[in-house]
Amino acid sequence: xxxxxxxxxxxxxxxxxHQKIKLTRxxxxxxxxxxxxxxxxxxxxxxxxxxxxxxDWRHHEGLLNKIGSYKFKTSSGLKIHFLHSPSSNxxxxxxxxxxxxxxxxxxxxxxxxxxxxxxxxxxxxVCPSLVGFxxxxxxxxxxxxxxxxxxxxxxxxxxxxYEQYVVQGGDWGATISKWIAELFPEACLGIHLNLIIAWPxxxxxxxxxxxxxxxxxxxxxxxYQSSGxxxxxxxxxxxxxxxxxxNDSPIGLAAWIIEKFHAWTDDENDKLILDLDEVLAxxxxxxxxxxxxxxxxxxxxxxxxxFSFNSIKAPFAGAVFSNEIIKPPRAWAxxxxxxxxxxxxxxxxxxxNENPEILARDVINFVKKLKL
Length: 372
Fold this sequence. Notes:
By secondary structure, the protein is an alpha/beta fold. The protein has helices at residues 11-22, 41-53, 57-67, 111-117, 146-159, 172-183, 212-217, 219-227, 230-235, 239-246, 250-266, 276-289, 292-302, 330-333, 351-354, 356-370, and strands at 2-4, 69-73, 79-85, 93-98, 123-128, 165-169, 188-193, 315-321, 338-345. It is globular, with a radius of gyration of 20 Å.
């Protein structure tokens, strides 16, 4: 069953957020301009003032409602919140776009109108919130992995009348999209990812046949493993413990999330390159829905990857951004995917938010290649 779900956070909840921010007890700091020890103290103090005095949650709430906010009760009993922007053309291509952590469906607010307004391909666009994220229900039992979420998203698409569709995703959305292509090959018309997970062959030289640019790109993962992997270790082992602090402190929550928006876009800069209001809207959604703890659980459910290395037959497109946390070469990806399009761009991990026009154009070009 699908129902309208207009979003409206109570005024009292917004006021409580402001009160909690004002009560922050600030830590000391040993840091540098590149946030080598974590989120900058001065940056967060500026955030606190802006969040209370200038940030307008009602504006961002309105953006979600304008696109179309709904809930779907799955056969599991869990309700999934999703945005739905259908085309007036009944023959339009259904496109399922799935976010990851620490993002949300808000990442797609800029790319949806670009995709809808293009004159070349008509889309029905569906953007679900993952189980445990935002306004989607929280699972009451362990094990809500990318594979299980893929099953629920497929169920949603069928309920909407979309028996065949294209999937697109980054971060955990990439693993969920891969699972849909693997579990429901008859439904998956194509798979477009802006985070590609692939590993070198088990035998032989993993660098064989790679050019200098591809070898250089492998340094991104080495950097991530050496200086940015701590959050993953915590969230995949003891997510509940972390939740006590972040569910109670909005500044703690913001510092934890914003550090990723900084590190995974341009960590050579001492400020955010993403729009501050858009980032604070995502943080605020985690706060108002008290979903930070439940959002961590996908890490524990997925273990190391949340991903199978079985090959898939659906046509595949990879959009590889220069500051992405992992950048496998095309030769590795071809061991798993049926690659029909592979493009490289400047930019970071949150492509739909940071580079919506580039990502939209890549999706459009891919769908045109499918000749549906």
